[in-house]
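Can you make up a polypeptide sequence alongside its tokenized fold?
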Amino acid sequence: MFINKALLRSLSLSMFFTIGNWSGAIAQNIQKSERYLSDQEIQSFESELQAGVRGGSRFFMERRTLSEVNQINDFVKAWQQVDPSISPFLGAWSGWEEGLSIYPSEIKGQVCVVATFNGGREYGIINNISIGRVLDNKLLLEGEGGKLVIVKKSGVLKSGDTINFIAEFGSYGGRKGISSYVFPKRLPEIIDNRLFKLRCTTSFPSLSNSISRFARK
């Protein structure tokens, strides 16, 4: 069962990294992030974030196969050639018990983001769709989840190894919250027509065609 996204964000970051068994809590309300957090507010999470990385050995354990790693790396490298601003964020990322899929778009600097989580018996499995645009190395989302900021992060594990992940920041009922996602894989095929209408794709870019198309925008 997935953890409810609104509940997850209401927890402190240290709880997020150390308590992974909140599946029994059923969502009473699906909240939206009311505003973008500022750079200063995002930075205020940094010490807790790094402490969470050091203490989150179970969360930060690589479970992808070599083939899965190569697939997403090849996909990201291909998109980096035509739209380097979005490439660090692409892939199907894993949270504790939720997922965040970030799709490239034919519109330069734009992505589609699908957050998948369990809203409990009342809501079932929910797919929140947002549009994301890159500004100053941050991905700003706006859509069914409200206004969110995604930042690519790194931290050092107890073993001394460095781990890369993405962190999503928002404000819910006046409370600031964060969710983190790791180990991206190739994106699932698009089954929601809204993503097609937003010109998002799971395909590798055609380098010459993409450069020509982006140049006309």
Remarks:
- The CA atoms of residues 6 and 31 lie 6 Å apart.
- The chain is about 30% helix and 30% strand.
